[in-house]
Amino acid sequence: MNNICQNIQKIKESIPEYVTLVAVSKTKPVSDIQTAYDCGQRHFGENKVQELTEKQSQLPKDIKWHMIGHLQRNKVKYIAGFVYLIHGVDNLKLLKEIDKQARKHDKELNILLQIKIAREETKFGMNDALLAEIMQSYEQGNFPNVKILGLMGMATNTSDKQQVANEFTTLHRLYETYRTQFPEFQYLSMGMSGDYPIAIENGSNLIRVGSAIFGARDYK
Ligand SMILES: *Cc1c(COP(=O)(O)O)cnc(C)c1O
User: Fold this and answer.
1) Other CB atoms closer than 10 Å to residue 200's CB: what's the count?
2) For ligand 1, mutation pick of 11, 206, 208 (most atoms within 8 Å of CB)
3) The pLDDT of residue 1 is above 60
4) Going by C-beta distance under 8 Å and a sequence separation of 6 or more, which residues neighbour residue 149?
5) Which CATH code for domain 2-210?
6) What ligand 1 atom has the least distance to the C-alpha of 209?
């Protein structure tokens, strides 16, 4: 058994069954994804549209593809036909475009709203006020071809575990608050290779794990 398969099995054994494991395959070759697929992995995540569409066209059609990166409005059309879940929606214009492209395909598109929980300035995400505004608009039926399935967030990249836990807890509370009102809420996407155990302890039910499965990424 090779490493990728072992890594997936070890992570699966260490997490509760209700947690969805998304294998983040960005920068990794199609052959690595096929290896993971052959071990039973079905949820994969990519953060670039072109890479995602190229890989999707070469791999089995029952893969559930997650767009986890920052998505530009003019690129929604390239993934609308097949993407399973778009994680990083953090503004109204993008949401409207997703709704429009979904309508063109005569389907509904699943999305998560990205909330800013980290203290770092570089992380994307909306604040509570915009979230409230969007959820109200959604409830009024303004995005009929979009299904908001939950929230996504990234914690600060720090060795301070208490801070990371606090950030995840904040997002979990927000998620639970909206879940009482929106029964379709089912995903709270938080946790990556470095912090997924803390994320699960603090309410995550979907983790996005790359390097702990496929090894370190080489960006050169
Ligand atoms: C790359 C990436 C991940 C996975 O990161 P690892 O540290 O390799 O597990 C998770 N989420 C997002 C949004 C990413 O861009």
Assistant:
1) 20
2) 208
3) no
4) 85, 110, 111, 112, 184, 185, 186, 187
5) 3.20.20.10
6) 9
Q: How far apart are CA 220 and CA 208, in angstroms?
A: 23
- For tokens 């929106």, the residue is 182
* pLDDT tens digit sequence for 42-95: 999 999 999 999 999 999 999 999 999 999 999 999 999 999 999 999 999 999
Question: Which residue shows structure tokens 């778009």?
Answer: 86
The tokens describing 49, both together, are 């549209």
How far is ligand 1, taken at its centre, from the CA of residue 160, in Å?
Answer: 19
Nearest residue to 88 (alpha-carbon basis) of 168, 28, 134, 150: 150
Distance CA 25, CA 37 (A): 11
C-alpha distances in Å from residue 134, one per residue of 93, 107, 188, 206: 11, 21, 17, 22
Cα separation, 104 vs 22, in Å, equals: 27
